[in-house]
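Backbone description:
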Amino acid sequence: MTHSWQSIVEQQQTISPNFNIKATAFFMPLTQLGVLKIAGEECQNLLQNLFTNDVASLSINQAQLSGFCNAKGRLFAIFLLIRRQDYFHIILPKSMCALLQQRLTMYVLRSKVTISDQTNDLVCVGLTQANNNQIEFLSLSNNNYQGHEDNDSLNIKLPGTVNRWLYISPQDKADKLCQTLDEQQWQLTSEKVWDLLDIEAGLPMIFPESKEKFTPQQVNLDLVNGVSFNKG
């Protein structure tokens, strides 16, 4: 396999989805996902007031499923929120990045908060394993929604019918990861497998066509710990 991220993605597009994911170990570039960065000394307070989950409860490199609703209580977006050292990352469908960035910016006003799209700087890779064996060169998190940081990359274990992790890093790190996994007999597969795993785990998602049409309860966001009824 070539080291080029673009070549890996192009090769991925020629592969039929292998949904027998319990048979072996797979990796898949998740080009359908984008990354927003929320930074600034007042970012936690802003997000705590806007999002459905308890942002203040997150520890560093911990993630949670969360949502953002309009004034009528209908979901504008659902996403994975990750707390980093002094900022937050939002992982969501790439088609929703510009829409959510624009909408959240309306609430910043004079707050010391910046919202930027890092989709061109960071890429996402999905990893699945039938067992829970550690990778020699990569320390994987063992608990759902807990992350493990390695320099400028992060992997987070997510719920599902198999062990799976979301790996987030600059493109050159992802190139190296995919090359090494290929050498260790991991199989490249379609990003559609990741979408199926989300569905099997009961994790809802909002796209431009479905934004502002459903309440959190209508998509069972509260049943997958995406809503906090006790946050301050």
